[in-house]
Each structure stands twice: as structure tokens, then as C-alpha cells.
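C-alpha cells in:
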């Protein structure tokens, strides 16, 4: 009942946003009435398609459900840009009105209204098209050197390849995952870290599309931690499936690995919100180090959400690898991520802890990335002075 009420409120808000865009843009377009009516019909269609796209993964009939998801999610990405550019247009026009009130005829207001009304849909279509190609191409490889004071010489150059937030689901399938796996294996990593949100759907729906993960190959193995979307999709079943694929799932636990004779700890925690779904899965970075050898200084933590960092720093970890944020995925959401997470993307430091936040290897929702490119991250430990 609660979820139904939330969904109805979301639909109502979506309708109001479509009405706002329609009222602000369509009357100003320099076209005839038939074209304006067609534009209004397109907005009504968008208003219907977006919730259908979000619900499509629950539909039983395939491949019709995936087709609906594709259409609905592309519509969501397009409308998101329409809304943002409409809002920015109103800010520009309000500023122009102020200037015109102070210096009469300083700004050609009538021309600006028409030109900006045309510009909004043009920019929305352009950004959605570019964003689509950015999202659908294989993630680039990003190399990050993490300088660690007093790093044992044997661990110099230890390579961890991180993938995160693939979101296998209605628009991301086995072929997309295959390309990621090929790129990761080409890097010949010492360790592979999968930092959550691998899937958006049930094992029954998506098991075959996660099958390429079986081919992940690293010197010391591939390790995975759960993200919030695993809990939306049936975490217990997915944990079993990941283990069947040969991935070691770390549930508030650690392993001791050895590189060139020097040991280091690789730990993993459940998602920051996992306790809301299963009390036994409550995330606990300190518990993940239970019974760990005290003499091992280098401790790497895999944690889906960056906000685990404060507990990780208190627990004495050296490095935390996270994802979840997608770097905002596309403008303007990159500005809003920081209200929920302490880190949005890239390498940062909290007290003695390094945190690397991946922008994600896939995408969620609209197949769209703009200003936040997807990545496969090659993390290398190097000796360096404390900062």
C-alpha cells in the first residue's frame, strides 16, 4: 500500500512537471497550431511512457517488456533534459526582464522568448542523443595511483581492477557485460573488485545475462559486495548466483591475500542500507576485520556506498573502493549526489583513509551519460608520502 501511494505521488509530480514544460515552451514556439498540438500530444505520451518504462521489469511477457522499458527510459532521459533546460530558460528570461526593467529595450525580449523556446527541445534532443552514445559504448579504462605511506615494497604496483554499478536489466544484457569482462581480463589484474549494483531484476529474469561474469580472471580472484539494487532484486538469490559464477561475495568479512610474499587484507561489507532489508546483513566495516591478523597494515575495503567511509576510517582501513553515485550520470544530478554522499567521484581522503568512488561501469534508468563517463577502474598501490 505504501509503495502504491508513493508511486501515485510520483506520477502526479511527473504530470505537473510535464504541464509546466508544456505551458512554458509550446505557446512560444514559432509554428502553427497543428505542430503545437503535436508537441502537446508528445508530452502526454511521455507522461504515460515514463512510468511504464519504470514498471516494465515487473512485466512477465518478454521481449515486449524490454521494448517498453527502452522506450520509457529514453523518454525519461529526454524529458529530464527538457525540464532542466526549461527551468534554466525561465531563469534567463527572468534575468532579462530585470535588465529590461532597468534599461528599457536593452534586451530584445520577444526574440529571446521565441529563440529560447526553440532552443530548449533542440538542446534536450542533442544532449539525449550524445548521452545515449556515451552510455551504450563500453566503459573506458581509468588508471588511478593511490599513494600509501610506508607501503611494503612487495605491494608496490599491486593492481585492483574495479567494476561497479553495471545494472544488468531491461536495457543492459549479456553482450554489454561481455565487453566489460573482455576489457577487465585484458588488464591482467591482481584482484578484481565488483562493488555492487550488478543487477536490476530477479535471478529468474537475468541469470543468463550475468553469465559472462564467470569469465572474470585475476591472479588472486574476483570479489563482490552487495549494492542496494541487489536488495531490491532478491539479495539472497543473487548472492548464491554470484557464488555459482565464481565470484567470492564478502558479507562483512575479509580474506588475507599475499602478493610477492607480502600479505594484505581485502574486506567487503554489505550495502550501507542492507540492514533495512535483512537485519543479519547490517553493514559493519569493523566486523569485517574480525580475527584479522594485527600485523597486516594494508587493508582494502569494498563498500558499495561512499558514506561507509567514516566507519571505515574509524576501523583503520587504508583504502575504500566504492560506487553507487554514477558520478551523477548526467547533468544536473551530479550536483545533487553530494547531498546524500560525502564523495561523488574520484580519489579523496578522509583522515588516514583513501576513498575511490567509481562513476560506474554501466548506468541506471535512462541510457544516458553526460559529463560523468562510465569507467573500468585500474587502481594501483604506489609508495608515497602522506597528504
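Residues out:
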Amino acid at each position: 500500500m505504501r509503495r502504491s501511494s508513493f508511486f501515485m505521488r510520483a506520477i502526479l509530480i511527473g504530470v505537473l512537471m510535464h504541464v509546466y514544460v508544456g505551458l512554458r515552451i509550446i505557446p512560444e514556439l514559432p509554428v502553427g497550431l497543428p505542430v503545437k498540438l503535436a508537441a502537446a500530444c508528445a508530452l502526454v505520451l511521455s507522461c504515460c511512457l515514463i512510468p511504464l518504462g519504470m514498471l516494465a521489469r515487473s512485466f512477465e511477457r518478454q521481449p515486449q517488456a524490454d521494448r517498453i522499458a527502452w522506450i520509457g527510459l529514453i523518454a525519461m532521459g529526454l524529458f529530464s533534459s527538457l525540464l532542466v533546460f526549461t527551468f534554466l530558460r525561465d531563469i534567463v528570461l527572468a534575468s532579462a526582464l530585470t535588465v529590461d526593467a532597468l534599461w528599457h529595450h536593452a534586451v530584445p525580449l520577444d526574440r529571446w522568448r521565441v529563440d529560447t523556446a526553440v532552443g530548449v527541445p533542440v538542446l534536450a534532443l542533442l544532449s539525449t542523443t550524445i548521452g545515449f552514445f556515451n552510455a551504450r559504448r563500453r566503459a573506458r579504462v581509468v588508471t588511478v595511483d593511490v599513494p600509501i605511506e610506508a607501503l611494503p615494497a612487495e605491494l608496490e604496483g599491486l593492481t585492483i581492477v574495479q567494476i561497479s554499478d553495471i545494472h544488468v536489466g531491461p536495457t543492459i544484457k549479456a553482450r554489454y557485460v561481455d565487453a566489460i569482462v573482455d576489457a577487465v581480463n585484458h588488464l591482467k589484474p591482481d584482484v578484481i573488485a565488483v562493488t555492487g549494483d550488478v543487477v536490476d531484476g530477479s535471478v529468474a529474469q537475468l541469470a543468463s545475462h550475468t553469465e559472462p561474469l564467470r569469465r572474470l580472471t585475476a591472479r588472486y580472484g574476483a570479489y563482490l559486495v552487495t549494492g542496494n539494487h541487489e536488495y531490491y532484486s532478491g539479495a539472497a538469490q543473487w548472492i548464491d548466483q554470484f557464488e555459482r559464477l565464481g565470484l567470492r561475495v564478502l558479507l562483512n568479512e575479509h580474506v588475507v591475500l599475499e602478493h610477492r610474499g607480502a600479505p594484505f587484507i581485502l574486506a567487503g561489507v554489505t550495502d550501507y542500507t542492507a540492514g533495512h532489508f535483512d537485519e543479519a546483513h547490517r553493514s559493519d566495516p569493523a566486523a569485517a576485520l574480525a580475527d584479522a591478523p594485527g600485523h597486516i597494515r594494508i587493508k582494502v575495503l569494498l563498500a558499495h556506498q561512499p558514506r561507509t567511509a567514516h566507519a571505515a576510517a574509524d576501523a583503520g582501513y587504508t583504502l575504500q573502493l566504492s560506487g553507487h553515485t554514477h558520478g551523477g550520470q548526467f547533468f544536473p544530478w551530479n550536483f545533487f549526489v553530494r547531498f546524500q554522499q560525502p564523495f561523488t567521484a574520484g580519489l579523496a581522503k578522509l583522515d588516514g583513509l583513501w576513498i575511490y568512488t567509481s562513476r560506474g561501469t554501466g548506468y541506471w534508468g535512462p541510457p544516458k551519460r553526460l559529463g560523468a563517463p562510465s569507467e573500468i577502474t585500474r587502481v594501483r598501490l604506489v609508495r608515497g608520502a602522506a597528504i
